[in-house]
Amino acid sequence: MKKRGELQQQVFYYILVAVLIALILFFGYQQITRLTNLNEQAKFVTFKNDFQNAVNNLYYKNPGSVITYSLTSQNKPLILPRGVKEVCFEKLNNEVKVKSDSEYFIEFNVENLIPKEDNYCIKAINSQLSFTLENKLVDGKTVIEIR
Predict the structure, then answer these.
(1) What is the number of domains present in the chain?
(2) 20 to 30 Å CA-CA from 31: which of 7, 61, 127, 131?
(3) Among 68, 70, 73, 71, which Cα is nearest to 58's?
(4) Tens of pLDDT along 93-125?
């Protein structure tokens, strides 16, 4: 038969183990959430850089040059962060503002880009953006049209 002191010590041990398990689960969940958020932020930065590079690369090609980003083309669609349903292109003076409604998507401006129409939006499919860029001469100035 166990003594009373041993029984109290055993209860204290189980409580300590339960608290440690709860702390490990709590902090583990927090770290997984932070890593997921960091992953989505990295997807946005990659999208922004890839998109700006696509526009800049086409800008220096001949007028009439076309590049398509789609599942069936050589250039695959650009990956978007989670929650992006569409990406919109709002024409400003000499730039276009690229925006979306996702918490991970931060508006940014792209030079030498013009949308097919004012406030042009492209729907995202499976967190991917398919689009076509065309190098055009408008009023003697080289611009890239997105459609």
Answers:
(1) 1
(2) 127
(3) 68
(4) 778 999 998 888 899 999 999 998 888 999 999
